[in-house]
Specification:
The protein is an all-beta fold. The chain is built from no helices and eleven strands. Strands 2, 4, 5, 6, 9, 10 and 11 form a seven-stranded mixed β-sheet that branches. The chain has a four-stranded antiparallel β-sheet with strand order 1-3-8-7, with no helix packed on it. It is globular, with a radius of gyration of 13 Å.
Length: 114
């Protein structure tokens, strides 16, 4: 499984960005796909994920502001990020899990200025 992330950038607080993650390879066996982030000096944390059964999981800090969705025809997962805050600044990583194996895309930087 290969994951290609895009859509990061710089935005002011209150703004919006949309991240995309295109999956290729044997994606039909993926148990879940989603996004993690890592801020400077902090551990990588789950932001949002969607399971094979369309169950959604969000970090408490982004609930109500971020929305994860996917387009099965395009094998692409999206993260719509609204009402961005400076504390959302981080490198965002697309992640997928299949049969207990983790796959990671290259990170994309999101910078939110106050």
């Amino acid at each position: 499984v290969q994951l290609q992330a895009s859509g990061g950038g710089a935005v002011q607080a209150g703004g919006s960005l949309r991240l995309s993650c295109a999956a290729s390879g044997k994606t039909f066996r993926l148990n879940s796909i989603g996004w993690y982030r890592q801020a400077p000096g902090k551990q990588r944390e789950l932001v949002a994920a969607i399971s094979y059964s369309d169950s959604l999981n969000y970090a408490d800090s982004v609930k109500g502001r971020f929305t994860i969705s996917r387009d099965n025809a395009k094998n692409t997962v999206y993260l719509q990020m609204n009402s961005l805050k400076p504390e959302d600044t981080a490198v965002y990583y697309c992640h997928a899990e299949e049969l207990r194996v983790d796959y990671w895309g290259r990170g994309t930087l999101v910078t939110v200025s106050s």
